[in-house]
Amino acid sequence: MDLFRRKSVTALQAEAEADHSLKRSLGVVNLTALGIGAIIGTGIFVLTGTVAAQNAGPAVILSFVLAGVASIFAALCYSEFASLVPMAGSAYTYGYATLGELVAWIIGWDLILEYALSATTVAIGWSGYVVSFLADIGIRVPAHFQAARGTVVTLADGTTTTAIFNIPAVIIVAIVTTLLVVGVRESANVNNVIVLIKLAVVLLFIALTVKAVNPQNWHPFIPPNTGSREHFGFSGVAAGAGVVFFAYIGFDAVSTAAQEAKNPQRDMPIGIIGSLIVCTILYIVVAAIATGVLPYAQLDVPDPIAKVADAAGLGWVSSLIKLGAIAGLTSVILVQLLGQSRVFYSMGRDGLLPPFVNKVHPRFRTPWITSILTGIAVAIPAGILPVRDAAKLVSIGTLLAFVIVSIGVLVLRVREPELRRPFRTPLVWFVSPMGAISALYLMSSLDIETWIRLVVWLAIGLTIYFLYGRHHARVAG
């Protein structure tokens, strides 16, 4: 059997026209909001502080710029594919059309790191903000059930205990999974409301804290390296970019909803690029304000943006920011679970996963079985895992997807130049290689332990492919 057999683009386009199993109900506002909903979350509410304190200092601003540049290149490539092949499956489907089945499997398996593990990571962050907010209003979640097993929790009287299981993280995954089973339009409408709330909170934070900025806190802008590659200096800025890249994950999740978009050829590029530009600007501004209000060393806390509001004398805003963070992280979980279930749906449709994976609910017209399985797969690790190492693994998995999509656009331009492309990546001979190179550069900035985890994960995936997927694939050789 040919490991590199491809699905032709014309066949995929015909399939997209003929397949009405998923309901086309999303317009450009829904798609842009999905992107913003997925992007603004852990990055702005959590990682801004930890990367400033541990990696880059005030130059965390540059870390966001580096990660944003890599994302812009990839977004342009994703936009061409999403308008050309309006199918669920995102980079998995694009890989199948350009680089063949084995590469498609690798990227589909890799996307589990991006979507499922990302949702796990964000659910853990959501739990931290919920526990903190409830404590503000006098409701205390039992310490044993508010964080991952082994996490030391400080009690109200100053004593400490060890957590056993993260119950709030599991609860939010269950709620979001139920919403996704009920319907994508309902999910998108809820997401639209959440996005408005968190954008309002972020803009309020910027407006009220900018006056508290002390420019002295930006000096030195790039703190001298401590002798460790990840700790400050430009190498620290680059390592920080590899970590905060997690903050940009989400715009590509818009492409997983292509089969549920009303006018994907026009609306997908707008949703992908528009959401990324809005969020990049907000990230840079928030990072500048956070490091300007407080010395960067003080930002290594679970809720750095709330701490900055406190330092700016806006005590009442701190609780509002926590509410915004809770709303923001909820929408991230929603979009990531949506993306993962659609990737599984596409792999099941192609025979690479068992057929029950792509069953569509007769009433709700959603891939309900894969949505439930994804929810379970996310909820269990969300209850037991800590957050930072998971974020690095999500980043390297997504960057690998970006490399493949960036290369794939150029390969398809050479192989099938006559295809009608509703959106064409501008300066493709520059943008495509730079998308791959910048993603590889950010991958190289991550530590060896993260690389080892990626290799182990891919080895597991290849084992499943050669034992099952290769023999059940429905693509003609």
CATH homology-level superfamily = Amino acid/polyamine transporter I
Count of helical regions: 16
CATH class: Mainly Alpha
Strand content: under 5%
* CATH topology (level 3) name: Amino acid/polyamine transporter I
CATH architecture: Up-down Bundle
Notable traits:
477 residues; mainly alpha; Amino acid/polyamine transporter I; two-stranded antiparallel sheet; 16 helices; 2 strands
Describe the protein's architecture and organization.
- The chain has 16 helices and 2 strands.
- The chain has a two-stranded antiparallel sheet.
- The protein has one domain: Up-down Bundle (Amino acid/polyamine transporter I), CATH 1.20.1740.
- The mean pLDDT is 81.
- The protein has 477 residues and is mainly alpha-helical.
Map the helices and strands.
Layout lengths: L8 H10 L9 H12 L2 H15 L3 H25 L6 H8 L2 H36 L15 E3 L5 E3 L4 H16 L1 H26 L23 H12 L19 H30 L10 H8 L3 H35 L18 H17 L3 H28 L12 H17 L3 H25 L5
Antiparallel strand pairs: 1-2
Helix pairs in contact: 2-8, 2-10, 2-12, 3-9, 3-10, 4-9, 4-10, 4-14, 4-15, 5-6, 5-14, 6-7, 6-12, 6-13, 6-14, 6-16, 7-12, 7-13, 8-10, 8-12, 11-12, 12-13, 14-15, 14-16
